[in-house]
Specification:
CATH class of the largest domain: Alpha Beta
Strand content: 5-15%
CATH superfamily of the largest domain: NAD(P)-binding Rossmann-like Domain
CATH architecture of the largest domain: 3-Layer(aba) Sandwich
Shape: elongated
Helix content: 55-70%
Distance between the termini: 52 Å
Strand order of the largest sheet: 3-2-1-4-5-6
Radius of gyration: 20 Å
Oligomer: single chain
Largest sheet: 6 strands, parallel
Number of domains: 2
């Protein structure tokens, strides 16, 4: 039997990641702001439901958070009834959300004052890889804390990397997501140009996938874009958030990222069209609107 784990946040990704931990033999106590999701998860996978993050942390060797943004992470860890109040000294806290590196460092300092270890370990791979336990996990923090977390990461991920000190997991993640967002926005533009010029779009996609223009975005997003299928694997509003964090980091470092800045404008335009909860491939709608062309 694996060590007991408290898991906070059962959204699209979190519920699947918690399932991977349970499948690996860990006793998982789950907390979710919408209690019905936690009840349903426990009914299907076993474990225990907690009424608060504090309760989820009680008796846990590690506490994992998977929520939306920095304020939510801070709230579920350090707020009233936060996990930090229920965790025994020496407990390892792992945030697997995507938040700003500055938030990671601030939260980490507060947890250290309470004798708690902390890793920032955001993930890449969207829901299919979360379901299969084959995520890419990039962790920032001490060598010792990473070593303690490695068996948990191995249960959830296929590529597990220690990328540097606290905060570097998030930095690597948002740079990676900015590239993904830029690629998807570029793909949307290419498809719209293809439509406007009258070429066979299926042929265009086949060539994109078999030439130097090939990318994961072409593989995963071209066909859904052609069908205007925006079933959310990674929500557009979350991608916009991540690109914004990346641009904040790039500006602070004095390193321009103009293609990501353009992508941010396109995702913001898609948000303005009411597409926040759709998959980020819905950036196509903003590009179609600019061109006055629909696939």
């Amino acid at each position: 039997m694996g060590e007991p784990v408290g898991f906070v946040g059962l959204g699209i990704m979190g519920s699947l990641m918690a399932t991977s931990l349970a499948r690996a033999g860990h006793a998982v106590t789950v907390y979710n702001r919408t209690a019905a999701k936690a009840e349903a998860w426990v009914a299907e996978h076993g474990g225990r439901m907690a009424a608060t993050p504090r309760e989820a942390a009680e008796g846990a060797a590690a506490v994992i958070t998977m929520v939306v943004d920095g304020p939510q992470v801070e709230g579920v860890l350090l707020g009233e009834d936060g996990a930090a109040h229920g965790a025994a000294p020496g407990t390892l806290v792992i945030d697997m959300s995507t938040i700003a590196p500055k938030d990671v460092r601030r939260i980490g300092a507060a947890l250290a004052e309470r004798g708690l270890g902390f890793l920032d370990a955001p993930v890449s791979g969207s829901s299919p890889k979360a379901h299969d336990g084959t995520l890419t996990i990039m962790a920032g923090g001490s060598d010792a804390d990473f070593g303690r977390a490695k068996p948990l990461f191995d249960a959830m991920g296929e590529v597990v990397m220690h990328v540097g000190p606290l905060g570097h997991g998030q930095t690597v993640k948002v740079i990676s997501n900015a590239v993904s967002a830029t690629n998807a926005a570029t793909l949307a533009q290419a498809l719209v140009v293809g439509k406007a010029t009258g070429v066979d779009l299926e042929a265009l996609v086949a060539v994109l996938g078999a030439s130097s223009s090939a990318s994961t975005m072409v593989t995963l997003k071209a066909k859904p874009m052609l069908g205007h299928d925006y079933t959310p694997l990674f929500r557009l509003e979350h991608m916009l958030k991540d690109v914004g964090i990346c641009l904040d980091e790039s500006e602070a470092a004095g390193a321009p990222f103009p293609s990501a800045a353009l992508a941010r404008e396109l995702y913001a335009a898609a948000m303005g069209r009411g597409l926040a909860d759709e998959d980020f491939s819905a950036v196509l709608e903003a590009v179609e609107g600019l061109a006055g062309v629909r696939l």
